[in-house]
Amino acid sequence: xxxxxxxxxxxxxxxxxxxxxxxxxxxxxxxxxxxxxxxxxxxxxxxxxxxxxxxxxxxxxxxxxxxxxxxxxxxxxxxxxxxxxxxxxxxxxxxxxxxxxxxxxxxxxxxxxxxxxxxxxxxxxxxxxxxxxxxxxxxxxxxxxxxxxxxxxxxxxxxxxxxxxxxxxxxxxxxxxxxxxxxxxxxxxxxxxxxxxxxxxxxxxxxxxxxxxxxxxxxxxxxxxxxxxxxxxxxxxxxxxxxxxxxxxxxxxxxxxxxxxxxxxxxxxxxxxxxxxxxxxxxxxxxxxxxxxxxxxxxxxxxxxxxxxxxxxxxxxxxxxxxxxxxxxxxxxxxxxxxxxxxxxxxxxxxxxxxxxxxxxxxxxxxxxxxxxxxxxxxxxxxxxxxxxxxxxxxxxxxxxxxxxxxxxxxxxxxxxxxxxxxxxxxxxxxxxxxxxxxxxxxxxxxxxxxxxxxxxxxxxxxxxxxxxxxxxxxxxxxxxxxxxxxxxxxxxxxxxxxxxxxxxxxxxxxxxxxxxxxxxxxxxxxxxxxxxxxxxxxxxxxxxxxxxxxxxxxxxxxxxxxxxxxxxxxxxxxxxxxxxxxxxxxxxxxxxxxxxxxxxxxxxxxxxxxxxxxxxxxxxxxxxxxxxxxxxxxxxxxxxxxxxxxxxxxxxxxxxxxxxxxxxxxxxxxxxxxxxxxxxxxxxxxxxxxxxxxxxxxxxxxxxxxxxxxxxxxxxxxxxxxxxxxxxxxxxxxxxxxxxxxxxxxxxxxxxxxxxxxxxxxxxxxxxxxxxxxxxxxxxxxxxxxxxxxxxxxxxxxxxxxxxxxxxxxxxxxxxxxxxxxxxxxxxx
Amino acid sequence: xxxxxxxxxxxxxxxxxxxxxxxxxxxxxxxxxxxxxxxxxxxxxxxxxxxxxxxxxxxxxxxxxxxxxxxxxxxxxxxxxxxxxxxxxxxxxxxxxxxxxxxxxxxxxxxxxxxxxxxxxxxxxxxxxxxxxxxxxxxxxxxxxxxxxxxxxxxxxxxxxxxxxxxxxxxxxxxxxxxxxxxxxxxxxxxxxxxxxxxxxxxxxxxxxxxxxxxxxxxxxxxxxxxxxxxxxxxxxxxxxxxxxxxxxxxxxxxxxxxxxxxxxxxxxxxxxxxxxxxxxxxxxxxxxxxxxxxxxxxxxxxxxxxxxxxxxxxxxxxxxxxx
Lengths: 830, 324
Description:
Chain A is mainly alpha-helical.
């Protein structure tokens, strides 16, 4: 008992967060998760106000409330804010806050990466918000179709705000995506094999994977469009070999998976809550996992259903129509598994359950109109009308907002240690639910009566007046409901009944914590033997509190958590966590400097921001690791575990590199897709000349990259041996990278490409630039590893720097070869 | 106006009333494509309500039933039946129907030579060309004169940004995309006036980018197209001179001459039902009002400001155009 108290005091000390300005250095997942959630809720309010402006304008025909300029900014920002600044960050916040607790860990794999993600999100969001305040917000629609969003038709900075601000926020999303993938696979409780993992973990694993693969196409599209706007490189200009449809493909390659990136975490909430309120384990666990994975895959095959009216071949329409309908299948499986779980148990009613019913009704109807929209001829009629506005709100409000509110009421006691009221919560629900349906049910018919989307005014006597008025009324009713919900939350904060632990008799590990939870989550880390640890053993919480688990005693002031094997959940290491750090904040500030400089057209100064970021990242990387090999630790469960923060293939950083390169590879794949797309269907192709890539040039570049790759591999292989030869190998790899980068950067110059004249020249230059940039990064990582080795931060055991240099060189060599082949191909075929 | 009357006498009275109240309604079809889509909509609508009711009743029953009663359906039946068999059968039927009916709506050989109209979408109006009429091409704007009862092929292009051509009562929409030519097949069963609009967001005045499609019996169509071709040839007087000085940099006033096309061809503007891309009824005096107030009537439109021009000259321009 005494021992336990000493431990707790020590844990409190080790995990304590700084105060004052140093709050900016906090990296703890609970704090970062809450920051994400609170910021997302703020942006939800902003998006809500914008929605009210839209409904006020459309309430009556010929309204004089907003002009076209204001309205176009308002509707563009409503979509943009809700998608990028509310929905995705809210999901990320929830995942960051909950996952370690639910998976029985003390923190995530890369706490500093989460903090970096938060600041990128915050700064990107502030750029967009600032533009709104100053009246220069984006106004070309949240889908930013070119040529409307191009420099000719949107000459101001409005479109740049979108492209740069959203890219900033997407960098955040990718950072969190990598964080979640690695954490879910590696940082769990002992014994939690993948088939015992709570479904919430499965949903978020697939979601995070989808973010990693789904966001790069839009990042690439945004880069290309921004370069077109800033430097007049005509990727999307049909008079110079570009194609506006390329933007649409890149946008919807992201945009459709995005819908499921939002829906899956909401379904995760549903799948977590239903068993608790049904008092029965989830029915069809395996089938649900299969459905989640299937949704992830199918969602990447439907993007063209946003483009049924652009005039594409009928066969393609049939394929995408079928895929769009097929994605309903894994969703209906989930719906009926939830119903089956309710039948299997003894359900009880509560405010979260009310929101789950709201979800079921609204989302199922949204899904049904989604199947209708997948029917191509029907889509031709209602596409870009208010029917689609109604559909997407049924899907997103039903499929995201109601589950989110269910989750809010369910997990609020976890955050605050207080229960919320019944009365106010019930009233808020019915107002939201009723107001929502009043707003959007009739809107299906507004669309069928021919009212298009995104018009700021309409004439009377077209049959649209009454429906629009009702929609606006409903919108305001819903807003009152949302206001009541906020009031309910505030009241509960102040007056709610206190709870110590697990008010819902739930089965997942986050409820084994004392409420509100301590920063270290658990006094000792649990071992699980089933899917619902608290139902399997009601005594879990007390046992953990008594220190009957792993890693009870913090050693040497380290923040520690357990690493497990991805599949089996067998403990295979201890992860030392970094604690508070300035570098994530500084790195994000540097990026903000870059984006703002670019936004203001100060292109020459923008690299300064990147240099700040680079410097911060290097300091960040420097802090990782130690000067001596750590001794293996006794886990407290009779096994000796290696400290794996920078050691061997088990280091989370090794897996982090893999996921980062997957995201990066998707960006390159999107670029090559764009190249192939323009080549095959772009107007005004082929260009006057293909690039002349002589065999000599190709061989020369290969000669530069191959030895770099070889040296990096060799350096890792001989890491235990002679220090001088290791240094020579790494410096050789550095030199090869520098020369390779120079070669690739010179390629467009030598080939006399003129990127402003034709999309071919522009995209070929970007491809060479991509390869050159990666060769330069490979050089940097090789040199960095050499420096770290020289300073004693690398050893045979602590080999992460060498692994990263090796892995990155493999990627650079592979993608460099791919790019050279792609560039040489047209000349060879001609 | 006279066009209005003649078009209405041909249409069925009931349909005309419904269509007048909801002139953009996809549910008041006036052509085979729109009719097929409206029919399938009602099937899908009622069907979806049945499915929604089924799911909600099941979920409510699961929660509200007395827990000592036996469960009516096993979990296996629920998930395999409701989660897989039900959607799969619905999807199969819908997809089969969609492929067949969609195919029939595409521009393909049906044994009748379609009537061709070329349309170029611009911010925020529609250039219309008749490539096959006598003395073609004939240029017009914001109005398509077509035969009733015969397939129409609308050859769509865009000159600036992406637009979308949609006549809801006749059928689905198709985008007009710079650098691309799309062909939309429509048929109007009966003579009449069918309203259309731009469905793809295209900037400031996306809301005021409408047009009218007027379907006539073939003989009448010939006369009307002929009248349009003959307009705009009176080049005498102050109005014509003022037009040449102030307007001709952007507008053609000859139905046979397409350039310049920065603004709509104004040759037969008096014969049009509407001005300002379907927004204003074409009544005497409207054109003159437009010259003074066009930034109030359609804010952000791309026409120059003419407040510096002597009002007498503007009077003459309006008078000359209305006299064509």
